[in-house]
Amino acid sequence: MQNRRAFLALIGAASAAFAAPAWAFEFQPYDPAVVKKAIASGGSVIVHVRASWCIQCHAQGAVLDSLKNDPAYNGIRFFAVDYDKQKDVVAKLDCPRATLIAYKGGKEVKRMSWQTSRTAVLAVLKAAM
Questions:
Q1: What pLDDT, in 10s, does the model give residues 109-122?
Q2: Which residue of 39, 57, 67, 117 has the fewest CB atoms within a 10 Å radius of its CB?
Q3: What region, left, alpha or beta, does residue 117 occupy, with left being phi > 0 and alpha being psi -120 to 50 degrees?
């Protein structure tokens, strides 16, 4: 019985240690209707146009991943465009891969392509806030 309690306590502690904070953001797949509604609401929206094989996209993604648990970005909705599978969306957005686009107040407020520095990525996020 004591071993069972110790095991359950360990499982509970491990679950708490690995649980993501409530403010962690996640990228949602780009769905035109959902994104249009999010932008029209006037809220803060970030769109990341990326390809799985793109080095710059991965570098931008690493910066974004490092910010996922920062409560400063709690109010922003994040969407990912698959550059290879969503060519119609890429054409409509008129952008290359490795592009971050910020929306606020129902309109685009900043766009950045190819840059991979933390400073450049933060500038796009801050524009949406």
A1: 999 999 999 999 99
A2: 117
A3: beta
